[in-house]
């Protein structure tokens, strides 16, 4: 599976022209999405960076996730993904914040409700918010690539909506 570079380039061009800033919190993807974004030609204009919080200790220390929340909800959960997003928004001045957790491999915490391939992602884009639980299949690299493409697709849709709203104001 390839990365949807056309949609990524479209978003990157838009973010650059609008002087928007993007930041990520990556757990399962461990910096992969950052690597993908860094390949986009305008990324130096809009991409602030990523907090790779693969281990729970990083979620706690770098983004202020409550250890009790991790214990209660699980590190791979909607609640912890939201806490990661809030941690980004509290610490960094960015127009777009993305947080992702998930299971790309077998893990003792997987369940029938959240099997391998489960991904939680949240995107805050100005006044818009996306909260998704996805289930991808395949090997770890397939799941991680599908996650990157899902995030790119959602950013693309948000940009299209923004453009439509901007045109409607004219």
Automatic annotation (TrEMBL):
Transmembrane regions listed in the UniProt entry: none
Source organism superkingdom: Bacteria
Residue intervals of the CinA C-terminal domain: 11-158
A Pfam family it matches: CinA
Gene3D superfamilies referenced in this protein's UniProt entry, alphabetically: CinA-like
The protein, known as: Competence/damage-inducible domain protein CinA
Organism expressing this protein natively: Sphingobacterium spiritivorum ATCC 33861
